[in-house]
Amino acid sequence: MFKKLLSIFMVVALFTSVLAACGNTEDKAADSEKKGSGKARVIRAGIGLNDKHPQYLALLKFKEIVEKETNGSITVETYHSSQLGDDRAMMEALQLGTQQMTIPSTAPIANFVPEFSVYDIPFLFPSEEVADKVLLESDVAKELLEKLPAQGMVGLAYWENGFRDLTNDKVAVATAADFKNLKIRTMENQLHLAAFRELGANPTPMAFAEVFTAMQQGTIDGQENPVATIYLQKFNEVQKYLSTTHHVYSPFVVLLSKMFWDDSSKEEQDILVKAAQEAGDYERQLNREANTKYLEDLKATGMTVTEVTPEARAEMKTITDKAVEPFVDKIGKDTVEKVKKAVEDASK
Q: Are 129 and 319 in contact (CB under 8 A)?
């Protein structure tokens, strides 16, 4: 009797074990399928600029491509005008996984990865064409993106903010001497601050959403941004002078939360990169067309536009070179040399 009961028990145990094994196999397969393509997910994408800016229009293009290529398994919610916070707050949200995407300039990224300050070296890029070759083709540009995952973010592509120009309500800035004592809003970037101090200005870091009011109230005299931003944010309503200083060429970087990236299938990751790159080509085209048009529109509104001469720009470069020296070790001497070599090669 005991042997019969033991045999029955062993059969039941074996059957239970087989069922459990099958169940585990099915669960693992389901989990594998569930990662990425098996579940609908949302990318909350926020930027600081408004809904008329080429950056936002390109973000809509990114949304269109991603939702089409993933058959709607990934949807993209878009937020403009700092609705989700300033650049730093949004990048911190990416680290936490509470936001999935943002597209800041490289200057605030340097607060997380110091090497990105290399792009803030004044007068580094002589033209948009050279910037394109360095950012889209050079090994060093890719190496910098590869430093982002350690900070909880993944860099999908470079976009264009563009050459930054100066506006103020005090004086038509044509030479380095004209910067003296101007209270200029800058991004939260130590190299930017140091460069403006070398020029004799009083730089003040400030969240982008606060800039218009600060200029309107006279808290600051001016700010520096690409022409498209100046026009679309209606800075001409509180600023009289614009100078084509072109003191920094500012890239955007499409950033994705590493948590979202890691939870995506290889196929989805490829789609996200492709969408960011295609939307980036679209954004650069829109941005350059907009800058040409908006500069003429600003003149038409009565804003005084001062074309800075190559000689005056060269003097500004010589002065701001002093600001760069203390930052080389922090940025990384190797990184600085590689980027400058890439610029030199692209300029040939």
A: no
Tokens of 28: 């693992």
pLDDT of residue 6: 40
Tokens representing residue 333 in the block: 């001497």
Q: How far, CA to CA in Å, does 113 sit from each of 84, 107, 110, 189, 205? A: 22, 10, 5, 12, 19
Domain containing 72 equals 40-346
Residue 3 lies in a domain: no
Listed residue (339, 276, 296) closest to 62, CA to CA: 276
Question: How confident is the model at residue 2, as a pLDDT?
Answer: 40
Residue 219 included in any domain:
yes
Q: What is the pTM of this model?
A: 0.85
The H or E element that residue 306 is part of is: strand 304-306
Judged by DSSP in three states, 104 sits in coil
State the pLDDT at residue 38. 57
Residues 214, 216: Cα–Cα separation, whole Å: 5
Which residues of the chain are under the pLDDT cut of 70? 1-38
Write down the pLDDT at residue 35: 47
- Look at the chain and report how many structural domains it folds into: 1
Query: What pLDDT sits at residue 189?
Result: 85
Among 81, 86, 117, 121, CA closest to 104: 86
194 in a structural domain: yes
Rg (CA), the chain: 25
Instruction: Report the C-alpha gap between 284 and 290 in whole angstroms.
Output: 10
- CA-CA distance, 139 to 338, in Å (whole number)? 9
CATH of the domain at 223: 3.40.190.170
Task: Give the tokens for residue 59.
Answer: 């973000």
| Whole-number Å distance between alpha carbons of 70 and 35 | 13
Specify the amino acid at residue 325: E
Write the CB contacts of 150 (distance below 8 Å, at least 6 apart in sequence).
Answer: none
Q: Is residue 22 part of a domain?
A: no
What Cα–Cα distance (Å) separates residue 246 from each residue in 88, 162, 213, 251, 307?
24, 9, 24, 13, 10
Residue 302 buriedness (CB in 10 A; 0-12 / 13-18 / 19+) = exposed
